[in-house]
Amino acid sequence: MFTNPVINSVLKNEGGYVDHPNDTGGPTHWGITEKTARSYGYTGKMVDFTKEDAYLILEKNYWYQPGFDKVYAIAPVLALELCDTGTNMGPVVGIKWLQRWLNVFNHEEAHYADITVDGKIGPGTLKALTQFLEKRGTEGAGVLVISLNCSQGQRYLELAEGRTANESFVYGWMKGRINL
Fold first, then answer.
1. Which end of the chain has fewer CB within 10 Å, C or N?
2. Residues 81, 132 within the same domain
3. In whole angstroms, what is the distance from residue 127 CA to residue 102 CA?
């Protein structure tokens, strides 16, 4: 069942049960909030929520639905970053960052055309990513991951500055999520 290496990595990073008083998401297990678990019909206590249940939700909502499986076929390291970011912040957030970075890395459209920043992995995003990697190679994939981490780190800073209770989490977010 646990055949997707990216989802397995996310599960490992998320860890087990957490119910921190400063977390607005409430009880969370394997990265799945109680609200999300309930939307899938789970009625038990979150402390008892299984890794198998989490895997199925993560694979559906944070892998296939946003199209990270398509990114994986082009750049596995980038798919891992996007899936992990998506689990933490929602898939649309990471996809928009990817689209924005692809647009500014296209050398004023000399390498490929700008794409719409819509938070969806569609043909335009996949084409731009492919063209970017054709130009920049493996190094380019690494630079994209670093770029996404920069955006994610900035977001964590804003979250902590905007709500002091988030200071409880910001060190762990940076340690566990930036530079996977």
1. N
2. yes
3. 11
